[in-house]
Amino acid sequence: MLVSIFSLRKHYDGNITVFLIAEQPKWFLELLKILKCDNIVLKANGIRPLVRKAMLWRDSPYDLTMFLDADTVIVDSIDEYFDKIEEYKFCTGEFAEWKTTGGTMRRRINSFKSIVPDYVAPAIAYGKATNTGIFGFTKDAPILEEWEDVTKRGQKVNRIPDEVGCQMLLPKYKHWLAPVQWGVSVKMSQPHHTDNMKIIHYHGRKHAGDWDLCDVWKQQYWEMRNTYQQFARELEQAMGDRRFARYIKTINRDVTIVTAVNPQYLSKLKNNYPYWMKTAGVMEYPMIVFVNGISPDDESLKFLNNNVKIIPWDMKGAESTRELMLTSFVLGTAEHVKTKWWLKLDADTTPKEGVDRKYGYILAFPEQAWNGKTVIAAHKWGYTKPGKFLLALEDWADGKKEFKDTKRVFPDSEIPAMKAQKRYGHPRIASYICLQSLEFTKTCARLAGNKLPIPSHDTYMWYVAARLGLPIIRHNFKKRFQP
Q: Which parts of the chain have pLDDT scores under 70?
């Protein structure tokens, strides 16, 4: 419900009333208030929820009401629906282009034969199946009293009496049957149903599943959770929702996302950040942004979510802006990251459209990246530019006691090539996407002291791991992400 309301507030600033039954948690009521919702507490009275749905017209405080199931996400303006309610007095929605003549719907309609026998044939002949997850009415809509009556009697013969009861009455009363775009089924939808999509309906607790449209719900969930961090602990409770319980257990990585930005790269970060917030493997985790040349409270950074920590970054002795910013990914992360792993994303890293999902993106690492032994998992790369950086690192490591029992990474026969070549070819990593162990990062920071031996984060980190013989994963991320 909170995700539904959170999404609704992006497209609608009018009155919202939540019907409650029984006592609710204090945090839930507080968040409803933050979302500018009123609430009405109803007596339980042993009434089944789906029966109560057909009775809510009695309790609505409005002359004109649009009802939304809690398992909906609103993705566009709903103003047109209110116009239709005013014009037709009663509105409901077409379900996934199902037909009343189809086997499932025909059986549902026939189940009401003992309740309203004269309505069965017209209901089958009506043609289009309805779903009452979204409906609207005026207080004087002629259909309402009979819908309530038929639903109450129909609960004895069908488990969804509100929906089938409504189906039985549509041929009899004036109404607007909203097209499928007003309640796109998470499971039964066809590709063209999402054209001009207004509302997604996750009927039957399917919001945290693996259907394409579930990506939209998950993105809204994490945006809400990041926005209202004071309720993060409560918002991860499963509350009896088994699919959500399974989903939230997969978000168990102890990870911080890290990026860095200066005025020259700010537009790139601003462009890519919304894509990151649609990327599974990124949107779930807290983020650190190291900034140089921008005040942390500058208006230009207001696009970042509440779970982003903005840290000013500067250092003495940097010979270039590049060196300054890249050093933040060693010395800065070692100081400020508190999680077991951290994930570097360059500000100009962009996910590619349509590779994995229609409504989102996935950033996934091989499972062995999380085994506690791998120190770096990053994009595979094939050269160092310039090659002399490697010679500088070899000489630097030779002078460190921590490397006294290690061998130089490259044979002496390669020294002339490394000196001469601007791009010295060898297998290594590039860090535009790079998962690192914090423990390893702290080792690298300690070895570097106040300044990296070369002005390159990924070359330095790769070299230390290679010299110490520590496990590295080289993975192809360019299939899904463009640096």
A: none
